[in-house]
Structures are given as structure tokens and as C-alpha cells.
Amino acid sequence: MSKLQSDALREAISQIANDSREKQRKFVETIELQIGLKNYDPQKDKRFSGSVKLPHIPRPKLKVCMLGDAQHVEEAEKMGLDYMDVEAL
């Protein structure tokens, strides 16, 4: 494995973004990044997680339907979500 300079990474991502603007596609394009950590054993070491807030909404028309019992149905009604209870399934 080799080290990747941050400038080269930024340049590659901006090139990909520019190319996607030139030729519009009829699906949502994604960029995947895989990072390998030196001297890190996932079997032995504790897992870690994090989150990054995106500057835009990736799926603005995403709909959610909550499946659950009476308690979950009440919570879904309060949040304004679509829901189905056990009887409806």
C-alpha cells in the first residue's frame, strides 16, 4: 500500500464530479472510498465508527414506512411517518 496525498485525492474527486456534470446519467452516482489502516487488527482492536454530515440531502424523496406493534404505530403517527401494524401485514 502507498500513501495518498490529500491534494491528489481532492483533484481526483473534483475530476470525477466534473465528469459527472458533463454527461448526465439517469441514476444516482456514488463514489466509494476504501481506507486501510496500518497496524490495526479488527479482530483484536475495538471497532470504531463515525458519521459525516453531507452538504446536501442524498435522497430527498426517500419514504419510510415503520413496521411495528401498537407502541411503534403511535410513535410513527406522532412523527408523521407511514406505518403498518401486525394486523395490516
From TrEMBL:
Keywords, ordered alphabetically: Ribonucleoprotein, Ribosomal protein
Pfam families attached to this UniProt entry: Ribosomal_L1
InterPro entries to which the protein is assigned, alphabetical: Ribosomal_uL1-like, Ribosomal_uL1/biogenesis
SUPFAM superfamilies for this protein: Ribosomal protein L1
Organism classification: Eukaryota, Viridiplantae, Streptophyta, Embryophyta, Tracheophyta
Keyword Zinc-finger found: no
Gene Ontology CC entries for this record: ribonucleoprotein complex; ribosome
Listed name of the protein: Os02g0321900 protein
Organism: Oryza sativa subsp. japonica (Rice)
Family, similarity comment: Belongs to the universal ribosomal protein uL1 family.
